[in-house]
Design goal:
3 helices; mainly beta; 222 residues; elongated; Porin
C-alpha cells in the first residue's frame, strides 16, 4: 500500500521558514532581495521502496531498489515584484539524480537478484514567495513540469516505456539563502516531487504514482 504523502509535516516546515524570515523592525532598512539568483546544489534523493515499483519493472525483490542516491540541482530565479514583506519570484530548475544497488544474493533462494540503476531527471518552472532581505531570505515555491524516472537492471537491452516516458510532475517545497559574502550565499532546499503514473508494458503495470523527496544544499550567486 502506498504511503500517504507527508503534507502536514511539510506545512509545519514551510510555516517555520516563513515565520523565521519576517522582518523584525531593524533600525536601518536592509537591502532588498536582488533581481536574480542562480542556485547550484548537490542533492540527496530518497527513491521510493514500493512493491508496485518492483512489479512495474519485472524485478523480483524490494532489495533490487536502490533507495537513497546523489545528484545535482541547478536553478535560476528573478524577483521582479515586491509587496509589503513578500517578494514574488519566477524561474525554473533542473534536477538530475541517480542511485544504484548491488543486492546481496539470498542463500536460500534460487532467484538471482539483479544490480539496478535508478535515475530521476526533472525540469520545471517555479513560482516563489520570498521573505527576508538581500542579506538572506527564505521562500516557499512550487511548479508543474515534467520528469523522467528510470529503473533499469544491469544487462537489460532496452528500457521499458516507463523508463523513458515524460511524466507530469508537481514539485513543492521551500528553503533559504544566507549571503555571508556580497555575491555568494549558502543555500538549501527541500522539495517533494509528486510524479504521475507511468504507462504499462507487456503485462507489467506502469510506474506507480508516488512522491519523491529531494534535499539539496549548495551555493547561490547574485
Amino acid at each position: 500500500m502506498r504511503r500517504a504523502r507527508p503534507i502536514p509535516q511539510t506545512f509545519l516546515i514551510l510555516l517555520f521558514i516563513v515565520a523565521a524570515a519576517v522582518p523584525s523592525g531593524a533600525q536601518e532598512p536592509p537591502p532588498r532581495i536582488p533581481l536574480y539568483v542562480i542556485d547550484v546544489h548537490a542533492t540527496l534523493p530518497r527513491f521510493p521502496i514500493e512493491q508496485a515499483l518492483v512489479d512495474s519493472r519485472g524485478l523480483d525483490s524490494l532489495a533490487e531498489l536502490p533507495g537513497a542516491g546523489l545528484g545535482v540541482q541547478v536553478g535560476a530565479h528573478v524577483y521582479p515584484v515586491r509587496w509589503r514583506f513578500v517578494t514574488f519570484g519566477i524561474g525554473g530548475e533542473v534536477s538530475l539524480n541517480r542511485a544504484s544497488v548491488q543486492p546481496p544474493q539470498p542463500p536460500d533462494s534460487s532467484a538471482v537478484l539483479q544490480n539496478t540503476e535508478e535515475k530521476f531527471l526533472s525540469a520545471s518552472p517555479q513560482l516563489s514567495f520570498n521573505f527576508g532581505s538581500g542579506h538572506g531570505w527564505s521562500y516557499i515555491s512550487g511548479g508543474l513540469g515534467v520528469s523522467q524516472w528510470s529503473l533499469i537492471p544491469e544487462g537489460r537491452d532496452e528500457p521499458f516505456p516507463s523508463d523513458t516516458e515524460l511524466l507530469k510532475t508537481l514539485n513543492y517545497g521551500g528553503g533559504a539563502r544566507w549571503f555571508a559574502k556580497t555575491h555568494v550565499a549558502f543555500s538549501f532546499d527541500f522539495r517533494y516531487y509528486a510524479i504521475s503514473a507511468g504507462p504499462p508494458y507487456l503485462g507489467h503495470p506502469g510506474s506507480p504514482r508516488t512522491t519523491l523527496l529531494i534535499i539539496a544544499a549548495g551555493v547561490s550567486l547574485k
